[in-house]
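Hi support team,

I submitted a single chain yesterday and got back a structure, but I'm not sure I'm reading the token output correctly. Could someone confirm the output below corresponds to the sequence I sent? I've pasted both exactly as they appear in my results page.

Thanks,
R.
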Amino acid sequence: MTYTDTSSDGTTSTITFYAKAPNSRYDTIASDGSTSAYIETPATTYICTSADQTCIATAGSGTGSAGLGLLSGFFSPALIDALTAAAQAQGISITKSNETIAGTNASCYGGTSSGSTYKFCFSDSGVLLETQITDSSGTSGMVATTYSGDVSDSDFQPPYPVTTIPAIPTGLALPAGERLERRMAARVAAPSRDSVRYWGCRGGGIGRHAVLRGRCP
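Hi R., thanks for writing in. Yes, this is the structure output for that exact sequence:
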């Protein structure tokens, strides 16, 4: 699944998620064309950047990922209906419409709270397809441009040569007053903060709630 993410200042980036349990991958293309990737498998986690043309590998969790994290599953149709009902109970007017986004049927919900206007769209299975927030700083959001279930094992292979960081030995003791730091040159870009505000739990209604971090490091 690929999204175009737009910040309130007009800056855009491209975000692509791959999921085939137990593996997942999160790629970004920044406005300057630089790319980064975060790949999680049960055995290994990779952080890769085009700037360094390398991938940093660390030991995996042993279990991998269940899929797209908060992009799917969490927003089941039943939960979306419950959130809508809770917002309406607080006196917030919610509109619902049907759209086609990235070739997929989408149920879209819109509302206004504290002077800000919100729009969220989901597939029939609850996958997030679009967010749009308009407030005093402008309009920001994220919209799916491609949505496909065609994912192969090769999508979870590191795109650059790999540098492996050894695992920290169990029971390693450090002298008093010292700390152990692991500094990575790579950093995976995240969606703009403006575009990750969700209907939240403020008063049981709609609020600004950052929940779309998924598997970003």
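A quick pointer for reading it: Residues 77-89 form the longest helix (13 residues). Let us know if anything else looks off.

Best,
Support desk
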